[in-house]
Amino acid sequence: MVRKFKENISLAKFANYRIGGPARFFFEAKTEADIGWAIAEAKIRRIPCFVLGGGTNLLISDSGFDGLVLKVNIGTITAKRNLLVVGAGISMTKLTAFAAKSSLTGLDWAGGLPGTLGGAIRGNAGCFGGEIKDNIKTVRSFHIKTMQPIMRNAAQCRFGYRTSIFKQCPGEIILEATFRMKKGNAVEIAATLHKERKWRKAHHPLEYPNAGSVFKNVPLSQILKPHSKEYRDAVKNGTVQYRGSSFSVKTDPIPVVAAAKLIGESGLAGARHGGAMISPKHTNFIVNTGCATAHDVLALINLAQEKVYRRFAVHLEPEIQIVGSINVLPKLCYHEEK
Q: Of 122, 152, 162, 272, which residue is the catalytic one?
């Protein structure tokens, strides 16, 4: 087999945002051997490497990436009794559909979840009360430095709120995961997945290119002291009054308040910078209205962080990943959607 890097490939078509300059080198890996070859070649050329999955939570620089973009497309998926063995390049849509068809329950919460399995594991993706860690048995990865595979159980993956060892300690490429599932009713599982996809379509601005939730929801512990009576009451009642605003408190899986609510209460619904807009439909989405640059999106990210901190003394932590260097003007000009 002859393997070869492609050169000067536009990354915009690989990102949900439809934003991004060219990759100096680009390679699609369909097997573990492909990954080993590409990493070895990148080391020989002494160039940096960025691992690309589904591109659903990325903001890629307008100048692109001056190195190797390695797209992981390991697309194997098999079921054996109550176990699913899944390659990192499988989309979450395909994974949940396969589980439903196999009458295996445990990923029902992930209906409509974008991206690939590798990205979901790295960020411990979650919604509707579930997280990717909940059914993980093992994760197999490739260590870039040692050029050897590593097998970990769920505890060794150090999963946390929207994080894992793969995010905390970069240097590994996720290859595949084994899920421990339970037998369920295929019709009921499919109905749950359909219901969640329908909810997303109704509540998220999917009519525009976007990268999903820009910020992590904010732990209630940033607002109230943990173990205090006020904290316990907020969790029990599902609501908290803070600095003149009322917030719902949900368990996701820890008690959190919605970043979207904080942004909305800061008066930023519909705020624009260039071709980017904070969606009035869901203010934790910054959308590309058609001609946005990475600079435009990052300007609104900075604006939201600044305004929310001034209003609520809360720091919004980005959930999306920024690839490459993006410069932002010190003073931002924006207008609101009318």
A: 162
